[in-house]
Amino acid sequence: MEPQRERAGRHLKKGRKRRRGPNMLVGAAEAMRARWELEESQPEAKKARLSTILFAENCEVTHEQLCELLKYAVLGNSNVSKPSWCQLFHQNQLNNVVVFVLQGMSQLHFYRFYMEFGFLRKAFTHKFRLPPPSSNFLADIIGLQKKQTTGDLSKMVEGSLPSSSSKVSISLQNDPIIQKYGSKKVGLTRCLLTKEEMKTFHFPLQGFPDCENFVPTKCHGSITDNSPLFGLNCEMCLTSKGRELTRISLVAEGGCCVMDELVKPDNKVLDYLTSFSGITKKILNPVTTKLKDVQRQLKALLPPDAVLVGHSLGLDLRALKMIHPYVIDTSLLYVREQGRRFKLKFLAKAILGKDIQCPDRLGHDATEDARTTLELARYFLKYGPKKIAELNLEALASHQELLAAGQGPRNTAEVVQQSNTSVLECLDLMGQKLLFLTREAETSELSSSRNCQTIKCLTNKEMRSKWTEMSTVYAGPFSKNCNLRAVKRLFKSFGPVRSMSLVLETHQPHLCIQYEVLEAAQLAIESLDGILVESTCIKVQRPVTELTLDSSTLVKELEQDSENRGTIYLSGVNQTFKEHLLQQSNIFLGLEAVILPKDLKSGKQKKYCFLKFKTFGSAQRALNILKGKDWKLKGRHALTPRHLHAWLRGIPPESRRTPGVRVIPPPSEQQALQVLKVDHPKIAAWRWGRKIGKLYHSLSPGTLCLILLPGTKSTHGSFSGLGLMGIKDEEESTTPKICS
After folding, report:
1. Where along the sequence do coiled-coil regions lie (predicted)?
2. Max intra-chain CA distance, the chain
């Protein structure tokens, strides 16, 4: 290796002077952080992208850390701190955030049905392990508030962004909605404004001096919780006599518009208020309908027990010059502190997740507004005051007002203290999307023990057994007088050996070698199968069991995995390998990361490593060089994603199954067909892969995508989840990084 170093030194003198980067030999993590900060400050940045290496212990990312990333992806550096476990460059270039949650799936499912997840393993370069799911996985990863059993009905924020302050608690007792309606669900009649409230908020009432010429709707039927609701919205203009009606929309339950009329004012129009009403002189010129026509039509349409729903409905009724006794006003239903009112546009977004009154339109759409008020009333009746209070609308509105004024919170602690918003609410505020795909309609519970029982591979032990048997090779026959020490040394040169034993039950001796990594076993098979050892041709192969029958196909697919495509495995590296590699990094174009595993007990560097390159071509060129006469290393393209390697490395000895043939009774044809029924996880995995592939291709470039398999809990135990992430069309860095 020394001559190669000298040549590299001369090459640097002759060539262009290389810019000095951070010292990666001392404090690799600190050097990477410095590089990240440098790249963040570059003015020519074009695309959002993720770092190659995830800084997570054993590649496991907690639910809180996921929440941390999602908040940063949505709000950016000005509002929250950067995630501690990965780096997202140029966050402001993200166009969308999309999260797919595959309910009832775990890391076991992904590798059990690896072939079926074809699109996911090829499209997403970043993979990490998730801990087994908690009681409410979704609440944890997006920071939704979860119920705590306490005497004062207080709510604790669980899974929210870590900060220097303690977790924020919200007392629902003090929420104005709870104070008015209580915490239990209420019926329609409880939401009606009382006569005193209508008087306080200036609704037109019979017998009042300013309502002498107003027309009553004649709706005096008996009101029940089943009475029909009608959404009402009016648009007005300014005339010489004040505000007058120009348009009325009435929407029945179910969203059907039963009345939508333009109205000609009786007096001279001074201002059409087009920016609000959308009405212009040209629109009203041909209109002949007058206020009295609309009043007559409305009286005919409304049944005796009709309940009108609107936003600031008193103004609409005054524009109509009509009196109606049964009303629900959404600006008062969703009670706000200090007598203030939420805007309809805000409630539509925060409660219903819909955009109305968009700035690119000319004025408001009266029918859309009427339909929205109706939906808001139905939502309140369906979910109750408690659900509304948990959304913390006051904090959301305050946060939105700060953002609109360009005075966003300064740091993470302020975000939590001022707004206590979940990731979902942050996405709503920023116009982003959070998409959940689940196998059940109810997304608050991700218990999937029933699904786990339908698959063959039920335990971590069996899944790890598959990898163990694939990492095991049998070699032989050897002559009885062969140099076994030299043979063992030969097999150890391909990678770390977990165990090596002599098989004497055969006519001639064989060796059983169990490697720590799949790459070492595959390399031994490819290099030694069919060679002559002391004049004897040996065969090197895996044991034949039901777990290794598809090993050849699986190995080919693993090579095509997006995380493995540009990664190579090397065996025979020594303690100075990293130093030599960095000194000659100019000949390894596209090198992004050096992964140097350490012994879990001693902490010493192992004699193998992984090098990650930007492209498959760069990886292949580097592999040819490193296997050459100057470096004399053994290697091949990687097969094991880093997160899985970290998981498999910790297999306790008692969970390893002795390789060998397992004989099980063959299932009947009917039983075999039953296994592949429609709801079998294998079919579900195939369908998930296809669905996500279609959705992914429809996304715009610059979309951060996370695929989350939450893990499962069942009577057989808890199983870790798996996360995959990437940015569509992301531009990867070519900066080498070191990770031990």
Report:
1. none
2. 118
Q: State the first-to-last Cα distance of the chain, in angstroms, to the nearest integer.
A: 22
Give Cα 186 distance to the centre of its chain.
34
Backbone angles phi, psi at 92, to 5 degrees: -70, -5
Nearest to 75 by CA among 299, 461, 301, 409: 409
Place of tokens 């007792």: 173
Backbone torsions φ then ψ of 42, nearest 5 degrees: -70, 125
Report in angstroms the alpha-carbon separations of 201 from 102, 198, 314. 49, 5, 7
97 bridge partner residues: 704
Distance CA(584)–CA(7), nearest Å, equals: 9
What are the tokens at 567?
């990664």
pTM, two decimals, is 0.42
Q: Please give the pLDDT value at position 149.
A: 31
Q: Is residue 155 within 8 Å of 390, Cβ to Cβ?
A: yes
Q: What are phi and psi of 684, to 5 degrees?
A: -60, -40
Residues whose CB falls within 8 Å of the CB of residue 695, separated by 6 or more in sequence, listed in order: 98, 100, 435
Please give, one letter per residue, the 3-state secondary structure of 42-85.
CCCCCCCEECCCCCCHHHECCHHHHHHHHHHHHHCCCCCCCCCC
| AA identity, residue 381 | L
Higher pLDDT, 512 or 653: 512
CA pair distance 451, 369, nearest whole angstrom: 43
Helix, strand, or coil (residue 409): coil
Closest CA to 303 of 224, 203, 377, 233: 224
Answer for the pair 38, 81: CB distance below 8 angstroms, yes or no.
no
Nearest to 547 by CA among 652, 651, 470: 470
Among left, alpha and beta (phi > 0; psi -120 to 50; other), residue 255 is left
SS3 234: strand
Q: Residue 129, Cα to own-chain centre: how many angstroms?
A: 14
The C-alpha R_g of the chain, in whole angstroms, comes to: 34
Find residue 214's DSSP bridge partners.
Answer: none
Picking from 98, 105, 119, 110, the residue whose alpha carbon sits closest to that of residue 641 is: 110
Dihedral sign for Cα atoms in the order 18, 638, 686, 56: negative
The pLDDT tens digits for 17-67 are 444 444 433 344 455 555 545 544 544 456 888 875 666 555 788 888 888
Cβ proximity of 74 and 426 under 8 Å: yes
